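Recap from last week: sequence in, structure out.
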Amino acid sequence: MLKLTLCVLLVLGATAINVQSSIWTNRDQKALAQIHSSGWGKFILNFAELHLSTGGILSELNSEIAKLVDELEEELAGVHHEFNRRTDVHNREVSRLEQEIQDKERELFNAHDFYDNVLIPQRDRFAAQLEQLQENIAQNRRTLQEATVQRENDHETFEAQVAEHNDAISAIDECLQLLSTIATPSLAQIKKVQKNLTKIQNSLKKHNQFQIFVKVLLEITVESNFADQGALRDIIVAFNNLRVELVDSLNQITADEAQAVTDFNAQVIQLNSEHAEFQRAVVVKNAEIEANATKIEQTLDLIDELDADLATLNGQLQAENDDYAFATDVYNSTVAEYNKEINAANQALELLNQPRFQDYVKSQLKGA
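Predicted structure tokens:
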């Protein structure tokens, strides 16, 4: 149809209607000028002139031109249909993209919220807990070291006390042995007893509770007459009493040492148990820290991925809107062009059915 139109227009170029002819009114001339601005309108008038000048019937011409107008309106309806279909596709695509963008924005918000309010506080909390565990381990080892040093010092003190007690007991036993074998002690024997008492006093100088016994015994041995059997018995009783006190004291410090050893061993077991528990907790905490670091890395990767997806979707939405805007511009210009051609065709059809047009054609034929 378009090729036929172009061919006819080329043929009719030489037979164009003279809009300046005196037969036309000013109103007709304006209408003709408007019609001639349209390709279809100009074609119809020229075609009508050719048709009538060759003996064609006006009713046939009206029928053919009406068909042409119908074709234009049918094509325009097709343009409307295609644009409506494109609009439906556009609306569905925009709806889909906006929903996906909304979903991505929600995912991105959740990812940022999880990172900021869960993972980072968890990382800081795990780090503080690990630091506390390490401090607990250091304190545990310090406590063990201090307890071990104290136990060694206490044991050395115990051994020194045992040696002192044993020395004192030996000196008492020697005095008792000496006193039990003499009836009238000589000055040398008395001096020996006094020497042993001095030895006992030196051995027990750190133990105030025994000093009174030793002091009394020294005074007795200095003032007493060993020839007096009664005084001798009193001295022997005093030595025995002192020996009992020393033996009881030795038994007590030995028992105290045994209890201290038991307590120390229990403390060592407890501290080592706590140390092992702290070590296990460190292993668990390090695993939690590693898992947290992995989750942070994964979440940051997810945020980057979601940002990229969101940028892609926004780009697709913008491209779709731009494409639809271009299609709308094309549609509007196409519809305007079709409406212009249809209006011009209808005006031409109306004009050619006026008697003045037929008179004009006849005048042109006579002039020829």
